[in-house]
Amino acid sequence: MGLAKRIIPCLDVENGRVVKGVNFVDIRDAGDPVEIAKRYNEQGADEITFLDITASHEGRDTTVHTVEKIAEEVFIPLTVGGGIRAVEDIRIMLNAGADKVAINTAAIHNPDLVREAAERFGSQCIVVAIDAKRVDDVDNKPRWEIFTHGGRKPTGIDAVAWAVKMAELGAGEILLTSMDRDGTKNGFELGVTRAITDAVGIPVIASGGVGTLDHLADGVLLGGADAVLAASIFHFGEFTVPEAKAYMAAKGIEVRL
Amino acid sequence: MSGIVAVIDYGMGNLHSVASALEHVGADKVVVTHDAELIRSADRVVFPGVGGIRDCMTEIRRLKCDELLLDVLGAQHKPVLAICVGMQALMTHSQENGGVDCLDIVPGEVRFFGKPLLGETGERLKVPHMGWNQVQQVSNHALWNGIEDNSRFYFVHSYYVDALDRNLLAGSVQYGVSADAALARDNLFAVQFHPEKSHTAGLQLLRNFINWNGQC
After folding, report:
1. Which of A4, A73, A99 sits opposite B197 (nearest CB)?
2. Of these residues, B56, B65, B84, B102, which one is catalytic?
3. pLDDT for res A24
4. What are A242's strand-pairing partners?
């Protein structure tokens, strides 16, 4: 008896359409985030994360509308991230039906946004997204730094210290993505996952690099993650959410079946 | 027939999810409002809540939702479902925000999960308690109809309810401590988890609520 480890499919959405493609065999419109979210809901996903990569301002209205539609039809928690710059952006997404909002770059430019948002809306709905890349010290001691702009721009900020600071400011959860692993299908960067899960008292979602079901299990068993996030292995029908859960359960991980 | 379900809106967070879920399970009509007349004329009432308890209590009192709740629960005797911070607000006092007096409709304390919080085998547990945990059904209540014992519901909270009268306990959840997941008293049912976010089990509980006659 206890809290289940969560499996979270992630949708990357641009102008109201899922990008990176989704390839369910029997879905009418593989680009419609509402239909895809409903499918994962039916499969027994524990949450859905919706990352908005829309650049234009007009496109943001589409995003809000999409979040509203998903929230009307999907009765599991929904996290929305991407382009969150101010308290007002968070308010708009929560009102649209998001349960949690992920702050990424804006937290780096203005850490106080996290404190302000947590005070106003409660820590339970403030997720801080961290994009980390391994940059070892001279003595080869592993160290991870935060990068912005899709992993191109270093910030000089230590990822573990940053996670601790964000938790202190009131973040309710950390969404940790390894920029070295994202898209590689080589598995999570377990070193930074473990370092951050050990360092903070709030839940940590591991992200970036899932290619097999073993990777998901490793994120929990070796990385200590409270939740594991993946996109392509689910989108392309390589594995379903129930298959992932059955595999994790067989490894002794508590999941919601 | 569910009749009209009023979801009390005291300005803390989005209530569309609750309303959508109630409509999804077949509520005839759902109104999201703090209008006292609308709530008094509804057939059943949902008292939700998110965010910090201090701000919630301030708004509940400012909008006179405290008097309204007493009336709805007492003289009017409507079925009432309290959710998450709505459940916490019913208690006597909460440790959150440095200590806040709540409505004292159900005697008891809202306690912090503790830091560090340890599990059965001494492992450290994360706070907030976030995710799907099993609810043990302690009483045989109409709102559990069709829901298997120990089903998982979605929780997200750092403070938990500890009701004084243990006879009110309808469901409990284990997370370092034994926390009150559901309380039942007459026409009131209160849950710490979010049924509107708890997929099949949560929707079933809401379906049970809209068909409930308010008898314990």
Report:
1. A99
2. B84
3. 60
4. none
* A248 vs B: CB within 8 A: no
Contact A119 B52 (CB under 8 A): yes
Reported ipTM: the value is: 0.93
Tell me the one-letter amino acid at B62: R
Q: How far is A119 from chain B (nearest CA, A)?
A: 8
For residue B103, give every residue at least 6 positions away whose Cβ sits within 8 Å of its Cβ, in sequence order, or none.
B57, B60, B66, B69, B89, B90, B91
Contact list in A for residue B175 (CB cut-off 8 A) is 2-3
Annotated active-site residue A89? The verdict is no
**Nearest Cα residue to B110 out of B121, B126, B124, B98:** B98
pLDDT number for residue B15 = 86
- Provide the pLDDT confidence category of residue A22 given band limits of 50, 70 and 90: low
Neighbours of B160 (CB within 10 A): 25
Q: Which of the four pLDDT bands, split at 50, 70 and 90, describes residue A46?
A: very high
Measured in angstroms, the CA of A187 and the nearest CA of chain B are apart by: 23
State mean pLDDT over A20-31.
66
Domain ranges of chain B: 4-210
As a whole number of angstroms, the distance between CA B37 and CA B49 comes to 21
Domain B4-210 adopts which CATH fold?
Rossmann fold (3.40.50)
B196 catalytic residue (yes or no): yes
| C-beta neighbour count of A136 within 10 angstroms | 10
pLDDT tens readout for residues B196-211: 999 999 999 999 999 9
Q: Which residues partner with A173 through β-bridges?
A: A127
Q: Are A241 and A44 in contact (CB under 8 A)?
A: yes
Using pLDDT thresholds of 50, 70 and 90, give the confidence band for residue A25.
low
The structure's pTM equals: 0.95
CB nearest to B126's CB, from A4, A121, A203: A203
